[in-house]
Amino acid sequence: PSFGSFFRKKMLSSALRRSHRAVLASAVTLARPTAVGALRTLRTAAFANPSSTVAHRRALGGVGTARMMATDANAPYKNIIVERKEEEKVLIITLNRPKALNALNSGLMSELIDALEKADANPQVSCIVLTGGEKAFAAGADIKEMASKSFIDCYKENFAWTWQAVSKTRKPIVAAINGFCLGGGCEVAMMADIMYAGDNAKFAQPEITLGTIPGAGGTQRLVRQIGKSRAMELCLTGEMMGADEALKLGLVSKVFPAAETIPEAIKTATKIASMSQMSVEMCKEAINQSYETGLQQGLLHESRAFWSTFATKDQKEGMGAFVEKRKPDFKDC
Do the bridges between strand 254-256 and strand 194-198 make them parallel or antiparallel, or are there none, so unpaired? Predict the structure, then answer.
């Protein structure tokens, strides 16, 4: 069985499915003027962790007017909140272990990977926003869970290697980061395609202070994004870096007041989702090739991906709309 199959089987139990049907049935009996609001509330109760913060709800509710709903009625999660802005085709995933500052344990990462796999397969999702809480995006891996592991345990479990599935998601991910983004949290954030930071964000790879080193990409992606010297300094000292420096060095694209980070990420995700989904995914793949291949191989990949867009109806629609001076109507085909 795969790393996440054990958790998915438990979350898809018949008891939870019966509970979900009962919740929806009770919502239908409400009077029509209040039915939509009540159903939204009940869905939130059924699919989201009750410990989600008021600030989180305020941040999501203040953007746009599209209705939010869970992306998969049969998969309630314990460590993340999954919501979808239906009209914009944007999925919002919130890491939700607030008492542990969103420390990344096996349960949370299994749920995150499961949610991303479902988003990739869902034609009603075109872009993903990944975020955390006000105090922390994620303060690192769960030390209590991994402190007693042996080399054999890590090797047999592919510990932290399975997290790379986040970077394999075909649809774009916009990370909205507030507060601490440390260790494994920083590594997961760097797996996103675009990183936005709140002005209170703090980045670090402090594994060296625990007698170990980054194990989910910190020594590799950080070097590529901010250069060898500063990456070496951060990894060897465990020092934290603020949002302004992260912007200056190119780790993040933009910095906002903390209260605006999530709304701005949703705004960008909505714009991306309005484009041709096939072209967006091809473009993401081509840009990622620049990290993983030499220049000539990357240029060849780009050219072939570029040529292949001319086999799509979206390319004809996009260029036709430009010539005709109108807004394109992409159909993702």
Answer: parallel
> Do the Cβ atoms of 332 and 123 come closer than 8 Å?
yes
User: Sheet holding 180-182: strands in order across?
Assistant: 136-138, 180-182, 202-204, 241-242
Which residue type is seen at 202? Answer: K
Compute CA distances 69 → 36, 92, 125, 163, whole Å.
11, 10, 12, 26
* Residues assigned a catalytic role: 141, 184, 187, 207
For the chain, the 3-state helix, strand and coil shares in percent, each to the nearest 5, are 55, 15, 30
- Cα(237)–Cα(241) distance, rounded to whole angstroms? 11
Strands 127-131 and 173-177, how do they pair? Answer: parallel
One digit per residue, the tens of pLDDT, for the chain of length 333 reads 444 444 444 444 444 444 444 443 444 333 333 333 333 333 333 334 434 444 455 455 544 434 444 445 446 899 999 999 878 899 999 999 999 999 999 999 999 999 999 999 999 999 999 999 999 999 998 888 888 988 899 889 888 889 999 999 999 999 999 999 999 999 999 999 999 999 999 999 999 999 999 989 999 999 999 999 999 999 999 999 999 999 999 999 999 999 999 999 999 999 999 999 999 999 999 999 888 888 888 788 878 888 888 888 898 888 888 889 998 999 888
